[in-house]
Design goal:
Blueprint: H1 2-31, E1 36-51, E2 56-70, E3 76-88, E4 99-114, E5 117-132, E6 136-153, E7 160-172, E8 177-190
Antiparallel strand pairs: 1-2, 1-8, 2-3, 3-4, 4-5, 5-6, 6-7, 7-8
Length: 193
């Protein structure tokens, strides 16, 4: 029961945070009529799994990053980001002990836009730390490659765009594997005058 409440609280918190940011930026977008730069702030939330050398679990993660469109048609974006999440060995058949762990990724992605479809590839470094139930603590570092597929969602405001990325896969050393679905919001920054 505690596991279910923990995950439910995380989901509720993420929905409140994303909806609050969306409402605030919608109010600001209505007031702004100036041009925006090719740079954006990106925020998002997702649900998925993480598995490594000594850990395996399901959980909620959050993303914050910066994005810059490059190229003549601005169809390529460079995106340094930070994701962080909390995972529990909930409903995963495993022979490991009960565990709770946090996973943080620092990475850089390149996004390629084709109409409404987005393909992404990148590199990441991960730091995972956690504890076994009454058995001690663990921590590990991983690094590897990331791939993702997403769909752009149109917005009536020039400043905002949304993206649903149902497939995000990170594969790293020491058997590290992380996968999640994520909903992101991109907030364009104003041009310097």
């Amino acid at each position: 029961m505690k596991k279910c409440c923990f995950n439910f609280k995380l989901i509720v918190c993420s929905v409140i945070i994303i909806s609050s940011i969306t409402k605030l930026t919608h109010l600001n977008a209505q007031e702004l009529n100036s041009e925006y730069s090719d740079e954006s702030i990106v925020v998002g939330t997702g649900w998925g799994f993480s598995s490594g050398l000594r850990e395996s679990g399901l959980g909620l993660n959050f993303l914050v990053g910066w994005q810059k469109a490059v190229g003549q048609k601005k169809r390529i974006e460079i995106n340094p980001y930070l994701t962080f999440g909390t995972y529990k060995a909930f409903a995963i058949p495993t022979d490991t002990r009960e565990q709770l762990f946090k996973s943080t990724n620092l990475g850089v992605d390149s996004h390629f836009h084709f109409s409404f479809l987005t393909l992404s590839a990148g590199l990441f470094a991960n730091y995972t730390r956690g504890m076994y139930s009454n058995q001690g603590y663990f921590n590990d570092t991983y690094y590897g490659f990331k791939g993702a597929i997403g769909f752009k969602i149109k917005s009536k405001w020039e400043q905002l765009s949304y993206e649903l990325k149902p497939i995000n896969v990170l594969v790293g050393n020491k058997g590290f594997l992380q996968g999640y679905a994520m909903y992101t919001m991109k907030i364009k920054l104003k041009k310097n005058k």
